Amino acid sequence: MRGRRQPLDRNSGGRGRAFARGQVARAWCKAVAQTLMRVLAALATLLLIVGFATGASAHAALVSVEPASGSILKTAPKAVELRFNEAVTPGAILLIDGAGRARDDASVSASGETISVALPPDLPQGTAVVSYRVISQDGHPVSGSVVFSIGTPTATKPPTSTDSGLNALIWLARVGLYLGLFVGVGGVFFARWIAWSMIGMTVPRVALAIGIPSATASLGALGLDLLGLPPAALSTAAPWKVAFATSAGPALLVAIGAMLLALMALRSAWYARALASIALVGVGLSLAMTGHAATAPPEALTRPAIFLHGLGVSIWIGALAPLIALVSKPTIATLPVVNRFSRIAALAVGVLALTGLALAIVQLEKPAALVETRYGLILSTKLALVTGLLALAALNRFRLTPALARGEKGTPALKRSILLEGAIALAILAVVAGWRFTPPPRTIVPETPLVVHIHTDKAMFQVLVSPGKAGVDDFVLQLMTGEAAPLAAKEVTLTLSLPERGIEPMERDASLGPDGYWHVRKVELPFAGRWHVRIGALVTDFEKITLEDELEVTP
Questions:
Q1: Which end of the chain is flanked by fewer CB atoms within 10 Å, N or C?
Q2: Where is the chain membrane-spanning (predicted)?
Q3: What's the CA gap between 429 and 368, in Å, rounded?
Q4: What pLDDT score does 445 carry?
Q5: Cα dist from 526 to 180, 212, 495, 503, 553, whole Å
Q6: pLDDT-based confidence at residue 27 (cuts at 50, 70, 90)
Q7: Which domains does the chain have, with CATH numbers?
Q8: What is the largest CA-CA distance in the chain?
């Protein structure tokens, strides 16, 4: 006996088809995520190998100068030698003699970490200045001045910096570059691989149109900064040539190539998705090729970390503008797109958190640097903004998106939340662009205290002066016998004078510290120069040992 045919439930069939489409979308999203993970893992492995193969490089710091800055010499030195903590390339070296004239007859040579400036033999008496600007291996300039006097000091001063306008140009160009890479390339990747739609591409197009000329401007401004040239010199070959010779030159070319590929991926062609993927990889590669973070040792960790960090930022920030456009005019396809992005964004946030933590540990070295250094303050500001961004992302994922799925009126709230995410993301890009002008704490070379060793047959006094520069200094006095045994004393006095500047002897009492040394803290040394040091140690009520020497204090 035949059973009765049941009537077709059209609503049930529609729900079944929707469920099937959802299953397919989820499976596709999972497959894309797995494919991306494999590609990223392979690229990270490649960068790991590159990191092992290249020598460690960093932001250069001056380690020593010969003759010492602030020294007073009887005769002119044949050369000034600058030694850095890594190999550097000379950018611009300027010599101003004791008469205040800029000289062009000083020759410059470089050998690894050392820059040697051969001085002309006819330097006049007075204070001379050697102003230097060298290029560190991360592509950033390091500048400063060395001051020394031949005979009587004069009023010669180091050249004043006029980089404020150029620094503003460098910062603006860096922000524009970030917009092109993260908003532009990231937006195109979102459209091709997550949204499957070209809705909301106006902002990524504009970002790419800003990013490409910004990358070009960054290259030219870098050359000007490295050579200390005015903006008018952009019409010459010198700044472009020196910029291409640094690690930043090829990195900016890769960034420009990535943005051009993203523009091509906006066209409806069979290869559009492939171009979007290559462009996204180009973002990570351009960031991993240069900069403070990428070149920090161990490069086997930092280069892959910055590569993955850049990809995570692009995927997250690039999606915001297209999502706003999709949510503004919701269709039946809006919710699946939001769900797909929500799953992929969770992976991107995890990558950002892990790589960001690793890079922060390498760059800061100690937690106190978060508040004690300019680099740390920028990072602290970024972390505060990122915390707000994460809070909004969590609100979108766990409250507003489910409300949209249930058919509730959550679209305006979701749009406002994404708009606020975009505003915070732009603020983060503006903040981190300031890192261009701030070396990370790991590159700050601790100042070596000045050491004076006074030795007679009866006693040896060792004096440590920190930081050994004009200003406020701390003195540590170690007293020993002539046989280098500890010398006990009842009281110790330190007397300092600088006759050439009219500073009469000033006496300070030392206090015995728990380390067994005598300390004199916060001594005001208002001028650089050769200070006369006299140390008196009262050994017994009837015996006092007094030793004297000179101390070279730098500016």
A1: N
A2: 168-191, 203-222, 242-263, 270-294, 306-328, 340-363, 375-398, 418-437
A3: 24
A4: 63
A5: 50, 50, 15, 10, 10
A6: low
A7: 62-150 (2.60.40.1220), 164-443 (no CATH), 450-553 (2.60.40.1940)
A8: 132
